[in-house]
Amino acid sequence: MGLLRRLDTELSCAKSRSVRVALYRNSGIIQELIENFISHLQLVQPVTKVTIDFGDGRKLERIITGNSIHHILDSFGRPIDPIPGLYGLKAFPKQLKQAEVIAAVLSNRSGTEYGNLL
User: Fold this and answer.
1) Cys bridge to 91: 21, 36, 87, 113, which one at CB 3.0-4.6 A?
2) What residues contact 69, with CB distance under 8 A and at least 6 apart?
3) Would you say residue 117 lies in a domain?
4) Into how many domains does the chain fold?
5) What is the per-residue pLDDT across 51-79, written as a single tens digit (0 to 9) for each?
């Protein structure tokens, strides 16, 4: 599983932090990703940063939004299924199961046939 962006910094986007808290702390989901998938989480929208200047030299800076996507890849790094947005502990494994079905269909395909089926 690869991550394009750090999810543990103060200014990581809210959705990325939610993914870290809701999904990546769940040992079952992490185990599933490690054992059965090549996964790449990508930030697909620039993080929106808001700065409040108090006028006395103090500033408050916060992240308010951002969008992420898990790219599910096959063993060759080809795309299998994108899982956009934030899913909960019950919904995310269902998306992974769907990706497994797609991967099975595409496993022995290549080139144009792979692209057309995908």
Assistant:
1) 87
2) 41, 42, 44, 82, 83, 84, 85
3) no
4) 1
5) 888 999 999 887 665 566 788 888 788 88
In a domain, 71, yes or no: yes
Residue 118 lies in a domain: no
pLDDT tens per residue across span 96-114: 999 889 988 888 888 899 8
Q: Which domain holds residue 31?
A: 2-105
Q: Which of 59, 58, 56, 50 is nearest to 14 (CA)?
A: 50
User: Side chain identity at 47, as an amino acid letter?
Assistant: V
Model pLDDT, residue 41: 61
- pLDDT above 90 coverage of the chain, percent: 8
Q: Where are the beta strands (DSSP E) in 1-118?
A: 2-3, 38-43, 48-53, 59-65, 68-73, 79-84
Amino acid residing at 76:
F
